[in-house]
């Protein structure tokens, strides 16, 4: 049996099918969960995909965090289940308080849509366990609000606890400490701005994202005892 | 004279980035103004304003309710805070 990944669809998400396709191409099972669902069903991991949930009204993720599905997602996360937020999903996780900090408008006010190189800073997480520290991955970004911001105490905590997972080699958006991805204290909730699902096939220009999503499948499989 | 125990308040919520939080919009505007011949502008900060009416028992209750809205929804306390102005609009 393959690990089962539930991909949440908010009104305005637009990367859910890409994530499903990528997960299935890597041997996992994936299905879309409507944001109005009040239970997650039988899943081993959850992905909040990219897009513009609720049109990014008020702030990205500000309304999505109150979707009915977010209660069960938070319970799943507290129980140790892998929960990954990609791009807009990362913004939802910070608004929901499942990850610290916030994602501000990019320094320079440009919407950025291009491949970037990120460095793996820690392999102790649901999304980096198949990578190596120092490994450089080329993965696309596609965002206007990816400028990771937090207070001094939070950044010190993230550093001390080895919770910065990815940094940009060439900081494109002004993120504090060049942060591209972080995890929670229990290391099962991860947010990242780059889109690994868009770098899982040579036809898409690269396969470095597969290393990231294979880590998720490994974490999901370990959890379900597969 | 009959008096309702409810009142209508006009509410203005001005959301701003916390001091010290970088403001990419503000700095872009600040850099653009000299090109149009407006010199001497410093410290541009961009925020947003929300206006609504609120039915509440009294001004203190209205203020408290809006403060909670800001805390839970209207602002992201990690990077933003709000100035709340509550004014009595009319009796119910």
From TrEMBL, chain A:
Keyword Ligase: yes
SMART domains: GATase_5
Keyword Transit peptide: no
Pfam families: GATase_5 (PF13507)
Biological source species: freshwater metagenome
Gene3D superfamilies from the UniProt entry: 3.40.50.880
Gene Ontology MF terms: ATP binding; hydrolase activity; phosphoribosylformylglycinamidine synthase activity
InterPro entries: Class_I_gatase-like, PRibForGlyAmidine_synth_PurQ
UniProt-listed GO biological process terms: 'de novo' IMP biosynthetic process
Entry keywords, A to Z: ATP-binding, Cytoplasm, Glutamine amidotransferase, Hydrolase, Ligase, Nucleotide-binding, Purine biosynthesis
Name of the protein in its database record: Unannotated protein
From TrEMBL, chain B:
Spans through the membrane: none
GO MF term set: ATP binding; ligase activity
Keywords: ATP-binding, Cytoplasm, Ligase, Nucleotide-binding, Purine biosynthesis
UniProt-listed GO biological process terms: purine nucleotide biosynthetic process
Cited PANTHER family: PHOSPHORIBOSYLFORMYLGLYCINAMIDINE SYNTHASE SUBUNIT PURS
NCBIfam families: phosphoribosylformylglycinamidine synthase subunit PurS, PRK05974.1
Protein name per Swiss-Prot or TrEMBL: Unannotated protein
Organism: freshwater metagenome
